[in-house]
Amino acid sequence: MEFTFLVFSSFSELFNPITLIYVVSGFLIGTIFAAIPGLTATLALALLLPLTYSLDITTALMACASIYMAGMCGGSITATTINIPGAPSSMMTALEGYPMQQRGQGAQALGHASLASMIGGGIGAILLIVLAPFVAQASLLVQTAGKFSLIAFALIVIVIAQRGRIVKAAMAACLGLMLATIGLDSMVPMARFTFGTEALTAGIDLMPVIIGTFAISELLIQARAVSEHNRLRREVLQAPAIRRRDFIPPLSSIREIGIWCYLKSSLIGYLVGTLPGAGGSMGSFLAYAEAVRTSRQPERFGKGNPQGIAAAESANNAVCGGALVPMLTFGIPGDPITAIVLGVLIINGIQPGPQLLADQAGLIAPMLASLLFSAIVLIPLTLFLIGPYFIRIVSIRKDMLYGAIALLAVVGSYVATYSVYQMGLTLALGVLAYYLRKHDYPVVTLLLGFILAPNLEEFLRRSLALSHGDPTIFLTNMDSLFFIVLTVIFVYFLAIKRPVQYNRDHSSTSGIAK
């Protein structure tokens, strides 16, 4: 209760005009980046990460929280209006939003998306505020061997969550682990894998990895899609103007959806968010599938049903609260954005873990207050005030947009480290990530592997030191054994049973066709 009271008292931080400006600006930037196809809130956060050096840590974390929430709801704008999700988490929204747009109900669809995002984001944030202290207390029971097994579980789940490309995800994660070993050994004062290069003695900084894998590679990917962008510009410029009052969904439609749909979808999103690597796209898909399963009229879905929008948007915004749980209590990011938020904490000398909410609750509470404020205030207010103009941001000339982003990325990587060598590494890692993405390697596993590698190695070596080199310590400690069993269960259901079932179904279908 003390932490909950501290969070709600932290709303006073928003009465500071400077802090409020950063929070609102962060939300607008996150929305704009999420609304433009090809750009994401992850990219926005990666570009703005160097600015956190000049900000107070509390203000920086509050701005990060507002960008996070905006990134989840902003993708519904283009998903509804031009059938191109601005963010992966809005793919299910496009299934229902675009048919409503074709019927002349696009603004109403955006209103449903905003309402669902507000409810889902608010419920997710409240669950995070109430439950995080209990999760932190429970995490104190996890010992050294258990911490290694937990991090290994997180990495494995992140890899197998990349359905259809598990092998490539594992290779990318291993590459991230390898990059993290470059530099001084954390336990023995000895340089590793520097190949005689003095500049690598300090290792590869987190900033070049984040900016390179997300910003530079994205620019190279988007540079190939000029014709598609020109088509989007023509569609947007020819689209009819949207009036503010059109955003307000009818009360009869909200009643038809039902409060239970919002609550159930929000809970699904929150629980999915607590799983490492799951993300908003999985949360929205599961909530949408559940809405279809329990509907009395499932045939209406896919044809412009507001209930589908409500389920998907409630879930993907509730993911925000869930994904911050493992990040704050264990230092394990739930998705790419929380991985960057983790980088903000580490850069500022804050180590996430069981003691974080007890020792530095005064820094974390304002961030959670900003997350809740963004959900229940900024989402509906932003859509009502400037929603009619959001769709027009897609018409920005691509050469000007990406030129400015490239400049920000390169300058930001230099300002973060004041090292020309690290800036060069940013460009090199960006090119590497571009070729990985071009061949369908998920770079998010590379980043998370890089972030989790130091703790993974530290707890492995500490555990073996405590047991005098006996690896059975991971089986004799109950907390470690629990996570090992959990890993086996996840691997079976996500990587073995499902592909086997798919192959059987595919074979039977082929046999019938023959």
TrEMBL record:
InterPro entries: DUF112_TM. Keywords: Membrane, Transmembrane, Transmembrane helix. The chain crosses the membrane at residues 20-49, 109-134, 140-162, 169-188, 200-221, 337-357, 363-389, 401-421, 472-495. It comes from the Bacteria. Residues 20-448 form the DUF112 domain. PANTHER family: TRICARBOXYLIC TRANSPORT PROTEIN. This is DUF112 domain-containing protein. It comes from Halomonas huangheensis. The lineage of its organism: Bacteria, Pseudomonadati, Pseudomonadota, Gammaproteobacteria, Oceanospirillales.
